[in-house]
Design brief:
Layout lengths: L2 H10 L14 E6 L7 H14 L4 E6 L6 H5 L7 H5 L5 H4 E3 L5 E3 L13 H15 L4 E6 L5 H9 L2 E6 L3 H17 L5 E8 L2 H19 L5 E6 L2 H9 L3 H4 L4 H15 L10 H9 L5
Parallel strand pairs: 1-5, 1-6, 2-4, 2-5, 6-7, 7-8
Antiparallel strand pairs: 3-4
């Protein structure tokens, strides 16, 4: 089955009550981290696959401009990325690839800085193209770069909410808090959710979460919900070497069960805390708006 046919089948399988192009149909989530090496991209990929296994329609964007690697984690060769759509060198059917577990994704690439200098006509074209598929989704996940670059800040402040991934490592904890502090000081409306990855056990995950949450409460007057944790699991490393998502390669592993529990918690409670969804058009308008 070719790429275009796969996409047509994907779109036709969506909820018939949902109108493509409708406002606010998808919740847009950015996933970020204060530093590299905490497993952010791996979490994002497997969280997306887990939501999909629960019957949700998910689109995954690799928005890490410098170190895009979602396609590598899946063992998929992506010929086109978002940049080719912007330059009108490919259309949406070619830019969206179908990965393992039938997960639709858009690969990252270089030249993304040109996003912020699009003409009005190119911006409208880009929005219309993305809208053909994005507005049929329940969730759109953006895997951003580590740290707090101006590009990452744009993604975080334009989305409906932001997941911050950390580990129990002291530098990861410090950098995760620093990222949220920078964002909150300039955009206090951004809602965060905290995920602890590579935890030795539930107690270590709770202690890690408590350190960040207490600091945020004391110094930022900010309540950050703890979404859950993923255990340190040798199956994750094995899956990376196989270039296969661990939730598919080892569905009964501890890490896979942790992601399932985290996703269920999010669907049961976390996603209800945000009633208003801006949709892909609102996101793009905020993300790529010109600085006056």
């Amino acid at each position: 089955m070719d790429q275009a046919q796969s996409l047509r089948q994907l779109v036709s399988s969506q909820d018939p009550k949902r109108t493509p192009g409708g406002e606010g149909s998808a919740r847009i989530i950015t996933v970020c981290s204060g530093k590299g090496g905490v497993g952010k991209s791996n979490f994002t990929l497997n969280f997306a696959l887990t939501l999909k296994s629960m019957g949700k329609k998910v689109l995954l964007f690799d928005a890490d401009i410098g170190m895009a690697n979602i396609d590598v984690l899946m063992g998929v060769s992506a010929r086109y990325n978002l940049y080719h759509l912007l330059k009108r060198e490919a259309d949406i059917d070619q830019v969206i690839h179908i990965g393992p577990g039938s997960l639709p994704f858009i690969a990252g690439g270089s030249g993304m800085d040109e996003l912020f200098s699009l003409s009005e006509a190119d911006l409208n074209y880009f929005t219309a193209q993305i809208g053909q598929i994005a507005d049929t989704m329940d969730f759109i996940l953006f895997d951003t770069g580590a740290g707090i670059s101006k590009e990452t800040l744009k993604f975080i402040t334009s989305a409906d909410e932001c997941f911050v991934v950390t580990t129990p490592e002291p530098t990861a904890i410090t950098d995760a808090y620093a990222l949220m502090k920078v964002v909150h000081n300039s955009h206090p409306e951004v809602p965060f959710r905290l995920i602890v990855n590579q935890a030795g056990d539930e107690r270590e995950a709770s202690l890690t979460s408590d350190k960040i949450r207490m600091a945020a409460t004391r110094f930022l007057q900010l309540d950050i919900p703890f979404l859950g944790y993923i255990s340190s699991d040798a199956h994750v490393v094995q899956a990376v070497k196989k270039q296969t998502p661990f939730s598919l390669a080892y569905p009964n592993s501890t890490a896979s069960k942790d992601v399932q529990r985290l996703a269920m918690h999010y669907l049961d409670s976390g996603s209800r805390q945000l009633e208003k969804k801006q949709g892909i058009k609102g996101f793009i308008n905020k993300w790529l708006k010109r600085n006056k």
